[in-house]
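Tokens for chain A. Residues wanted.
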């Protein structure tokens, strides 16, 4: 082992070199090799852009880990939620009603321009929608454009508007999208 400026480096030549002694070119090459190896093994890095890399010297996200991750305790992901409403009348059939009035959008996973909620993580999601109509309609829930839950509901009043709704718990993979439509 040799010490340089308070840092201890292993001498990979197998021989001991005391501090203060002169190093041969062979020993200097060994020291430089160790320094080069240390440079290649980035343990943790905080970049100037505020990104943290563990096992990488070029993190591409706020946190990038190359290798296995062990977490003791509870890891909490953002729990997405949104509330939206139609700002104008909707006529069908349509597989995606774009609810343009958004009052809540935790995580920004709902896109008001196309009516899609995109699941950020794999899991179970509760979806519900309610509407008013003066005729029979079929409110439906679609996953990736495929009809998965729906009812034919009828107006319960002889004149005016009746309320229709559709609800369900849906298993989604990260990246799946959900829309509400009517047929």
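Reply:
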């Amino acid at each position: 082992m040799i010490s340089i400026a308070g840092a201890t480096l292993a001498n990979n030549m197998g021989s001991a070199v005391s501090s203060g002694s002169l190093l041969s070119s062979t020993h200097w090459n060994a020291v430089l090799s160790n320094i080069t190896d240390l440079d290649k093994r980035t343990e943790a890095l905080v970049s100037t852009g505020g990104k943290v890399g563990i096992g990488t010297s070029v993190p591409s996200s706020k946190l990038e880990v190359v290798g296995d991750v062990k977490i003791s305790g509870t890891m909490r992901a953002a729990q997405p939620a949104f509330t939206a409403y139609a700002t104008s009348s909707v006529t069908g059939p349509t597989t995606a009603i774009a609810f343009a009035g958004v009052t809540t959008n935790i995580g920004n996973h709902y896109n008001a321009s196309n009516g899609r909620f995109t699941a950020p993580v794999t899991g179970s999601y509760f979806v519900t929608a309610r509407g008013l109509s003066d005729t029979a309609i079929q409110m439906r829930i679609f996953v990736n454009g495929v009809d998965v839950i729906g009812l034919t509901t009828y107006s319960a009043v002889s004149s005016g508007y009746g309320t229709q709704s559709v609800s369900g718990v849906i298993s989604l993979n990260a990246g799946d999208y959900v829309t509400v439509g009517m047929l």
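The chain has one helix and 14 strands. The chain has a mean pLDDT of 76.
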